[in-house]
From TrEMBL:
GO terms for cellular component: plasma membrane. PANTHER family: ARGININE REPRESSOR, BASIC AMINO ACID ANTIPORTER YFCC-RELATED. This is YfcC family protein. Residues 1-26 are annotated as: Disordered. Signal peptide: none annotated. The keyword Transmembrane helix applies. Its main location: membrane. Residues 1-10 have a biased composition (Polar residues).
Length: 513
């Protein structure tokens, strides 16, 4: 998943420059480290709280939860400084299980009214984390990819396309990110054996999963959280996202294959020249072990769970597939689905009762950071709503984009989210922070909120392909033995092409909406 929360591998520390002090002890000059998403969101919370004393309070009239254009008006706040200070103190708690009183429109823990917290999303993220960890513990996923790679090793181009597509599938369905770090040990010797270089090995994994996440269809950490924050279903807008996934995955595969063929034809053109050590590593590539019957069943269960999730969240009645039932499942049902599936996979995979319970606990623990990111981001929204400044910001943004055509609006939503994605590299945190403000703009522009969700996740995924603040990028490059500057040189043309194609899809999608 694309967050800063799950366990990850990061590159080792670079040697620090030292200067001697008067006592002869070396003074270490520390390199600047970009703060974590937790620190960024904490700073944002405090900063937004301070701005609420400057930004005028105001609200829109609403209809079915959507703001009515032209109805923005100033309001008088009934809360004093100490009440506002208490809002800041309780922001994370309100972000988890705050309830909005229909009379005062204020959110606080307990009470009665509309649930405003992210408790459903919180539990869902833990359930998905447990499911993914249990599946990885069985060894089925790693061995399945290894078997696929070795069966296709005689068909170089087909192998690259299939592997990149497999990683892209992981990205588009469950935001595969940190989980990719376990595959570098498999891919590097395989690609070196086939006559490619370490760049090919790294980008088959990183670009594949990254483009899949960029074009997420039902990724719970991007599409799911953003849709919840936008007040729509996860399946809304899936047709556009599916078409984007197919086209962008094909574009990425063609780009990687083109580079791989160039290296195969002329190794001197490699961005990461093959060393003698690489040749020895390639010659030591081992045949992958056979999948056991248990592992095959685990893989089918793993795939079937995500297929059922798609069936459960997509509003088939609104699409030309009315023969399929519209279940209308949301986060409570989906959390239960992944908890049950985690138990089933653990038992099928031979982990036993104790091993399954340990893996579920460990998986939930690994993903608790992602869940807390969503909680913190939702807390920012509560602070803004209680101070009645959300609609004021929305009115200002509406004024900025008013008059723009629907196609231009789609592109603007993409561009606005790019700097946000850099400062908040957690896709779920970015979604929970931005969507409550940006999604209602779609109502004014006459397009669906699903388009804003697609624009957000495209921007988040695009930035996270290269951002140096990502442990997935830097850790993956460290494991692959590829320098970051060489990777940027490889990615520059692809990033430009993706930028243009994404903007085109969003413009067309907004026009046809």
């Amino acid at each position: 998943m694309t967050t800063s929360s799950a366990s990850s591998v990061s590159p080792g520390p670079e040697p620090a420059e030292q200067d001697g002090d008067p006592h002869g002890a070396p003074a270490v000059k520390r390199r600047f480290a970009f703060p974590s998403a937790f620190t960024v969101l904490t700073a944002v919370t405090v900063g937004v709280w301070a701005l609420t004393f400057v930004i005028p309070a105001g609200r829109y009239d609403t209809e079915d939860g959507s703001p009515i254009p032209g109805t923005y008006h100033p309001v008088e706040l009934t809360t004093g400084f100490w009440d506002r200070l208490k809002d800041l103190f309780l922001a994370p708690v309100n972000g988890l299980y705050g309830v909005t009183d229909p009379e005062s429109a204020l959110t606080a823990p307990g009470g009665s009214g509309d649930f405003a917290g992210a408790a459903g999303v919180f539990l869902f993220i833990l359930a998905v984390g447990a499911f993914i960890t249990v599946t990885m513990r069985t060894g089925a996923l790693t061995r399945g990819v290894a078997r696929l790679a070795h069966r296709l090793r005689g068909h170089r181009t087909l192998l690259l396309v299939v592997l990149l597509t497999v990683f892209s599938l992981g990205g588009t369905t469950y935001g595969m990110a940190e989980e990719t770090l376990g595959f570098y040990g498999l891919m590097i010797p395989l690609m070196l054996t086939l006559g490619y270089d370490r760049m090919v090995a790294a980008t088959v994994i990183m670009v594949g999963a990254g483009v899949g996440t960029l074009a997420s269809t039902v990724n719970p950490f991007a599409t799911g959280v953003a849709s919840d924050s936008a007040g729509i279903g996860t399946g809304d807008g899936i047709v556009l996202r599916l078409v984007m996934w197919v086209c962008l995955t094909a574009l990425a595969a063609a780009y990687v294959v083109r580079y791989a063929r160039r290296v195969l034809a002329d190794p001197a053109r490699s961005l990461v020249p093959v060393t003698e050590e690489d040749r020895l590593l390639g010659s030591d590539a081992q045949e992958a072990e056979q999948l056991t019957g248990r592992q095959r069943t685990v893989l089918w269960t793993f795939a079937g769970t995500f297929l059922f999730m798609i069936l459960a969240v997509v509003p088939w009645a609104d699409l030309p597939f009315t023969f399929l039932p519209t279940l209308g499942w949301y986060f409570p049902e989906l959390a239960a689905l992944f908890i049950v599936a985690a138990i089933a996979v653990g038992l099928i995979g031979g982990l036993g009762e104790k091993g399954t319970a340990t893996a579920i606990t460990s998986g939930a623990g690994d993903f608790i950071g992602a869940a807390m990111i969503v909680m913190l981001a939702r807390g920012v929204t509560v602070v803004m709503n209680n101070a009645a400044v959300t609609d004021t910001v929305l009115d200002g943004l509406h004024s900025a984009v008013s008059g723009a055509s629907s196609g231009v609006f789609g592109i603007l939503m993409f561009l606005v989210n790019i700097p946000l994605a850099f400062f908040v590299p957690s896709s779920s945190g970015h979604a929970a922070l931005a969507m409550p403000i940006l999604a209602p703009l779609a109502d004014f522009a006459g397009v669906s909120r699903a388009l804003v969700v697609t624009a957000y996740q495209s921007a988040s995924g695009w930035v996270n392909l290269v951002t140096p603040t990502s442990a997935v990028v830097m850790g993956g490059l460290s494991l692959a033995g590829v320098r970051y500057d060489r990777y940027l040189r490889f990615m520059a043309p692809l990033m430009g092409a993706l930028l243009v194609v994404i903007a085109g899809f969003l413009a067309i999608g907004a026009t046809l909406d």
